[in-house]
Write a structure and sequence with these properties.
Structural class: alpha/beta
Order of helices and strands: HEEHEHHEHEHEEHEHEH
Number of helices: 9
Number of strands: 9
CATH architecture: Alpha-Beta Barrel
Distance between the termini: 38 Å
Bound molecules: zinc ion
């Protein structure tokens, strides 16, 4: 049990690089949400082009529980890279330069707070063809498992996701749907239900953690990311300075390509 807890704690610090402090959850005690009045007919497919003028707050479920994914298509030598952005700008510009120089498109897990703080970097991410993952607004644990806090209510979870989607959409016109990345990797079935209802079809976990957040040097990060390659694997990295994932990136790309792996974003391994 202790081992399990230790492992969980380690895994959950996925956010060593991007983790915002799990600040107060007072907003979790959210105001009662409007129920059942004048809700539009259910939309079965989340729109890829949300209309900013229309309030995104809705009680109408648009989908069943999200699917937890760690791999995409395992029949091909292809891997998906995901970079979480939740605290400092860190190595984001370097990461974008490296990706661009190598013709690689990836997915970025974005908090609303980060997007608001670094709109120029967000615009670059989108304009250079990368895709986005909703990493919530304030990086609170939805279940409280890793933070010793109460979990968020359904209304608070919805608010976290909608705020980030609104910010990203206002700034770039892009959407974070249908991808959700749980802060600290914390989720349970109620989270899958709540996010699925908002059009987040995929709860994006990972098969390979660079573990850059533990402070290991870039060469060690690169070696592990190359050694752990598997068809369809989803990788998690962080943009923040606390992790040397950025400086390790070129070596990782070189090493995976030497093994004939294609590197892509989430749509690239899921479609
Ligand atoms: Zn995070």
């Amino acid at each position: 049990m202790l081992l399990l807890l230790a492992a969980l704690a380690a895994a959950c610090s996925d956010d060593g690089g991007d983790g915002m402090p799990p600040s107060d959850i007072s907003s979790a005690a959210a105001a009662p949400s409007p129920t059942g009045t004048l809700t539009p007919p259910p939309t079965l497919t989340p729109s890829t082009a949300p209309t900013p003028t229309e309030p995104v707050l809705t009680e109408t479920p648009v989908g069943g529980p999200a699917q937890v994914i760690r791999y995409g298509d395992t029949s091909r030598k292809v891997v998906a890279f995901t970079f979480d952005a939740g605290s400092d700008a860190g190595y984001t510009a370097m990461i974008l330069d490296t990706l661009s120089a190598n013709g690689v498109r990836v997915s970025f897990g974005m908090t609303g707070k980060w997007a608001e703080t670094y709109p120029g970097l967000l615009e670059r991410i989108v304009s250079e063809g990368h895709t986005l993952i909703n990493h919530t607004d304030g990086h609170k644990s939805f279940t409280g498992n890793s933070t010793g806090t109460d979990g968020l209510s359904e209304a608070a979870r919805r608010d976290e996701l909608n705020r980030t989607e609104q910010i990203v959409n206002d700034l770039t016109g892009a959407t974070t749907r249908p991808y959700f990345r749980p802060p600290y990797g914390d989720f349970d079935e109620s989270v899958n239900v709540d996010i699925g209802a908002l059009g987040y079809t995929y709860n994006v976990m990972w098969a390979v953690d660079s573990r850059g957040w533990t402070g290991i040097p870039a060469a060690q990060i690169a070696q592990r990311c190359i050694d752990l390659a598997e068809p369809g694997a989803i990788y998690v990295f962080h943009v923040g300075l606390a992790s040397e994932d950025g400086p390790a990136l070129q070596s990782i790309i070189d090493g995976l390509r030497a093994q004939a792996y294609e590197i892509t974003d989430l749509p690239g391994v899921l479609e």
